Amino acid sequence: MAKYSIGIDYGTLSGRAVLVDISNGNEIATEILEYKHGVMDEYLCGTDIKLPLDYALQHPRDYIDVLEYCVPAVIKKSGVHKSDIIGLGVDFTSCTLLSVYKDGTPLCYDEKFNLVPCSYVKLWKDHSSALQAKRLTDLARAKGMKFIERYGGNISSEWLVPKVMHILDNAPEIYESADFFIEAADWIVWQLTGVQTRSSCTSGYKALWHASEGYPPKEFFAELDPRLENLVTEKLDAPVLPLGSRAGVLTKDMADKLGLIEGIAVAVGNIDGHCTVPAAKVLSPGQMLLILGTSACFMTLDERELDVKEIAGYVKDGMIPDYYGYEAGQACMGDHFAWYIKNMLPYSYKLEADALGISEMQYIFDKASKLGPGECGLIALDWWNGNRALAGGSSLSGSIIGMNLSTKPEDIFRALVEATAYGARVIIDNYKKYSLKINEIHAAGGIAEKNPFVMQLYADILGCDIMVSGSPQAAALGAAIFGSVAAGKSAGGYDNVVEAAEKMGKLKDVVYKPNLENKDIYDSLYNEFCFLFDYFGRGKNKIMKKLKNIKE
Prior knowledge:
It is a single chain. The protein is α/β, with parallel strands linked by helices. 39% of the residues lie in helices and 19% in strands. It is built from 20 helices and 22 strands. Strands 1, 2, 3, 5, 11, 12 and 13 form a seven-stranded mixed sheet that branches. Helix 10 packs across helix 17 (474-487), helix 13 (360-369) crosses helix 14 (409-433) and helix 17 packs across helix 18 (497-504).
């Protein structure tokens, strides 16, 4: 009798559930639900309360809606009997932070706080804590704290501690009232199992936790802000479980709501990108996963613990057990292109797209794809949402060099696409600089799945073969893989992640190979990109930060 697991993947704008055959990774049924409240970055939902610059909030009820709608839907679609579903896995964008009471209730549910923006979920791309991240980074460097080296020497405003600091500074009543601050992935697992746990993945990459050292000492937090002295013991104190383990089992209440059987295994929560690593069969050193979504992530493995600068961080067993998982990323990828369509596409192009019966995005991609390397005459920096690697990078902004009166919309769009690939090459070159091997690139995400033009351009600029994930829902497939491991072989699943991924992971047959003529041209342009990268990003010219300060 076939056995199945369900992967539940929470993205930036929607959540999805995928029901997967454990024997081969085939996706039997999928259901997607867009979040009712979306991303709140201008006004608080249902109010005229204007949100400050760089806020990106969400409503946690949307996450529960995904569970209660998508899971029953995939069971109904598939025709699979609930008794044959043995495990659940969950992944989430990260760091996506909730403030909750001791029973797990979010503070934004409380009438006392539902008009306070800081009581809502701080989405991963909430960059309002840039000043707090800088304070934390500066103090850690000044005191020679060991943990700062694990994160490339820089703490991002996207992470847990800066976001908590921002809440403390801007809404101290929320900080004082919250019993816990918790990643959304861990919170959803708590809702499923009735037991609060933390993932070694979310805690290690986003909350400064280390398997043998724990969190930074309370003396460090006290020096950061006396009110933070007991942050760990008072607000983060829950068991941290290894990635790939079982967090608990499904409660009767949730089983009834989801149409499942009480007591099935629930995996420890995971980060969406990290969950995709086994799904795309990145299982050993020399392989790198490139995820092209609203932002971009670059993940690779090594047996060694290396002091790599200008990355998001590394965690032992953070992606695949027995390896250090190294992560870097770009804060803007698909968001880059969506920004252009929303704000810059000429109305005449919209009319032409309508006449052809295609989307505006497809239309501008088609026009940009007809240009050759260097033909647009432009170079852009891909920092429309800041830069994750550089100190103070959330204050950096995008730029386009070379425009004149003959510049066309497709020239600008082509330059934006090329910029993301140049930014990717900077990250890969930095990995290699610190002795990480990158011999093989696997790509996942909607753009990797659907856009051959972008993938060929990436192959040309990176100078490396690129293979593509075989699943359109790779993160959810990864979550299902972890669900099968949480269930274990005795229940019909697997006892380790690599064994499960070898059976359930997916790659397409297609391989994008670099065009060497194009690569020569791009190599020249990349040198100019690196000059601009250093000039604006490493302190030679601080105009971007000054402009942002004036705007604020």
